[in-house]
């Protein structure tokens, strides 16, 4: 029972981190209906920028973090303006393929600048784990979970109560109606990409602090893609819940099934459950069902 509780608690902590990265996908998709498949490279770039500010510029963590967020906002804005905006009105598959190409370009640039070498993130949080009595939460997961929850709450508050958030929700619901109310849909698209980049950069810092960083760390975005599809592509709450579900399933599979088959099922289990759920609910747990008349 103690091992089971430990597995569930660490799964919840990891799930919070998955949920934060998934939030970057959802913020962009919810406002623009574009699935950004370069999110893993965004996440990796954020980790490298923060790492460089800490190690090369000797900046304190709070300044490195602020600089990273500023560059994330600028990157999202520039990418939307220069790359995505000319594709408005084009088939959605064309836009998705452009994001794949963007991811390849970003990975190549990071490969040239930082090389493929693995790097350990500098210690920025207290190393002591949290003792809950019935389980221990490793320091990396604990602080990652705290960052994930704080970041998610901030984005939720912006999305729910600010004028910008109301405009983003209106644009997500009906772009024509938003235009008729004087909302600049193009400006909202740029903001959505900027906020999505900020969420992914924070996720990259968190993941980098837990596992270290390399140009290949963005591969975790494939797992996060399963999270957002499970929760519903346009549901912020679904992204968070999906993160918890996927992480806990991973840990439970690693505990009970991996020893029976020699390993490997931990990485497959979330996608197996995803397929089953989508067969029952094709729009995910909280996705908005749409009906098209032909």
Distance between the termini: 54 Å
What percentage of residues falls in helices of 4 or more residues? over 70%
Report on the biggest sheet. Answer: 2 strands, antiparallel
Radius of gyration: 19 Å
The chain-level mean pLDDT equals 82
How large is the count of helical segments?
12
The assigned CATH architecture is Orthogonal Bundle
The first-level CATH class is given as Mainly Alpha
Report the order of strands and helices. Answer: HHHHEEHHHHHHHH
Total strands? 2
Describe the protein's topology.
Layout: H1 2-32, H2 39-55, H3 61-84, H4 92-114, E1 130-131, E2 136-137, H5 139-161, H6 163-173, H7 175-180, H8 185-211, H9 220-231, H10 236-256, H11 258-261, H12 265-280
Antiparallel strand pairs: 1-2
Helix pairs in contact: 1-5, 1-8, 1-9, 1-10, 2-3, 2-4, 2-8, 3-8, 5-6, 5-8, 6-8, 9-10, 9-12, 10-12
Index terms:
mainly alpha, 294 residues, ABC transporter involved in vitamin B12 uptake, BtuC, 2 strands, 12 helices
């Amino acid at each position: 029972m103690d091992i089971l509780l430990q597995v569930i608690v660490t799964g919840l902590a990891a799930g919070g981190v998955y949920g934060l990265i998934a939030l970057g996908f959802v913020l962009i998709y919810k406002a623009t209906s574009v699935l950004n498949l370069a999110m893993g490279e965004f996440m990796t770039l954020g980790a490298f920028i923060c790492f460089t500010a800490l190690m090369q510029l000797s900046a304190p963590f709070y300044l490195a973090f602020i600089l990273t967020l500023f560059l994330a906002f600028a990157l999202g804005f520039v990418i939307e303006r220069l790359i995505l905006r000319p594709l408005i009105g084009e088939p959605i598959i064309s836009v998705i393929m452009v994001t794949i190409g963007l991811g390849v370009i970003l990975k190549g640039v990071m490969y040239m600048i930082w090389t493929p070498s693995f790097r350990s993130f500098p210690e920025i949080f207290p190393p002591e784990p949290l003792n809950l009595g019935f389980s221990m939460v490793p320091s990396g997961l604990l602080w990652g979970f705290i960052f994930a929850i704080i970041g998610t709450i901030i984005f939720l508050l912006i999305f729910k109560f600010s004028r910008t958030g109301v405009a983003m929700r209106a644009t997500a619901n009906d772009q024509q109606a938003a235009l008729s109310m004087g909302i600049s849909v193009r400006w909202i698209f740029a903001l959505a990409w900027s906020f999505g980049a900020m969420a992914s950069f924070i996720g990259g810092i968190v993941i980098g602090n837990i596992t270290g960083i390399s140009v290949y760390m963005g591969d975790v975005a494939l797992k996060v893609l399963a999270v957002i599809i499970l929760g519903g592509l346009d549901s912020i709450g679904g992204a968070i819940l999906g993160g918890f579900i996927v992480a806990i399933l991973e840990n439970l599979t690693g505990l009970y099934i991996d020893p029976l088959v020699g390993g490997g099922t931990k990485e497959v289990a979330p996608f197996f459950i995803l397929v089953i759920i989508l067969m029952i609910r094709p729009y995910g747990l909280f996705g908005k069902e749409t009906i098209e008349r032909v």
